[in-house]
Amino acid sequence: MKKLNFLLLLSAILIFTFMNSCTEEDTPEPDKTEQDDGEQQDDDGTNGDDNKDDRTEDNDETDDDDDDAQEPFEPVIITIEAETVDLVEDWKLRTDIEGFTGDGYIIWEGPDLFWKGNPGGVAQLSYEIDVPKAGTYQFNWRSQIGKGDKWDEHNDTWLKLPDADDFFAQRDASIVYPEGSGKTPNPKGENGNGFFKLYMNKTTWEFTAGTSDGNFHSIYATFDEPGKYTIIIAPRSSYHAIDSFKLTLQK
Ligand SMILES: [Ca+2]
Ligand SMILES: [Ca+2]
Known about the structure:
single chain; mainly beta; Jelly Rolls; 4-stranded antiparallel sheet; 1 helix; 14 strands; 31% strand; binds calcium ion
């Protein structure tokens, strides 16, 4: 009898430990709206780090075989330092703001380029990435407002993944595509030539990026095959400091 009680207690402890080991879901970003060019606090519900769900087998031999064996999801995260490209025009490599990774961060020190037509048409930077596994990836960059502390200034840059099989932004059931992609609906605010305006609202380094003014949609790209793909960024707001990019495979 004592032994049975002991086993029950042990099982309870194991179950409790297992439940605690399951990681929390990302919390969605609350809304906060604003003025100016109409963006929104995103509060980065988007941290792309895939929670790994390490299920350890509990040792009690009492029972059940693994609830049926699905292929375990293997996380894939692709990171690229933003400064690993030949900079053109007024893009600068800087190291003044601490906490960057790699050799520094890039920042557009030319004029603001919003609402001038031809989105993404000026001073493009092009990166080749190696996608090891087909699927849909969330795109984030690690960036911050690089001048002043107004949350909606110096906070956005153009992004396009021209050869991805799909390039879209999503918030819950709402999916948007950039103008020029041939797909609709399009996000609120400026977009075009297949470029999204990616914004964030922090004055510290954060992995977060979204589009659609006042309605933060996270950014995704689907690659039907593994292989080489292209990321193009282009300046929109001056002094948006970008440290690195991250693409995280979605389950
Ligand atoms: Ca802005
Ligand atoms: Ca960097």
